[in-house]
Design brief:
The chain is an all-alpha fold and 135 residues long. It has one domain. 59% of the residues lie in helices and 3% in strands. Strands 1-2 form a two-stranded antiparallel sheet. Helix 2 runs antiparallel to helix 6 and helix 5 runs antiparallel to helix 6. The protein starts with a helix and ends in a 9-residue tail after the last strand.
């Protein structure tokens, strides 16, 4: 088993499938958003909101990973979309679709859910550079 596999990272074909699922989520969310007709100004305002969770990393990697994973899991967007559809509240549905699009494009680009060990440790593999340890 490779070092990454033993560390809990997804490799090879499963990693590519997860990235393709992210792309599919992004495209589906965009398609439904266009069909909803909520407008691109709202999309532009909300598309990067989940990335505000990065700020929690100032409190350490455990708090940062928790905040990031909360905002980058599919659970939040699905619950938001379901609420917006069932109530019915088109604005809530639109925000859920934007959120889902954000999560999808992040996954498609290889940004996975964070481990509390370090910012760059994700379920889709290591991102960024490792800090060099000088002895």
């Amino acid at each position: 088993m490779t070092e990454q596999a033993s560390a809990g990272y997804t490799n090879g074909a499963p990693r590519q499938i997860l990235r393709l699922e992210g792309l599919a989520l992004f495209l589906a969310a965009i398609g439904f958003y266009v069909k909803l007709g909520a407008g691109w100004k709202l999309f532009a305002i909300f598309i990067l909101v989940p990335d505000l969770s990065f700020a929690a990393f100032v409190f350490g990697p455990r708090a940062g990973a928790f905040a990031y994973n909360t905002m980058h899991s599919t659970l939040g967007p699905i619950a938001t979309m379901a609420s917006g559809y069932l109530l019915p509240q088109p604005m809530v549905l639109a925000i859920g679709l934007i959120w889902a699009a954000h999560v999808g494009i992040d996954r498609a680009m290889g940004y996975g859910l964070k481990y509390p060990s370090a910012f760059g440790d994700t379920h889709l593999g290591r991102i960024g550079r490792r800090k060099e340890v000088i002895a």
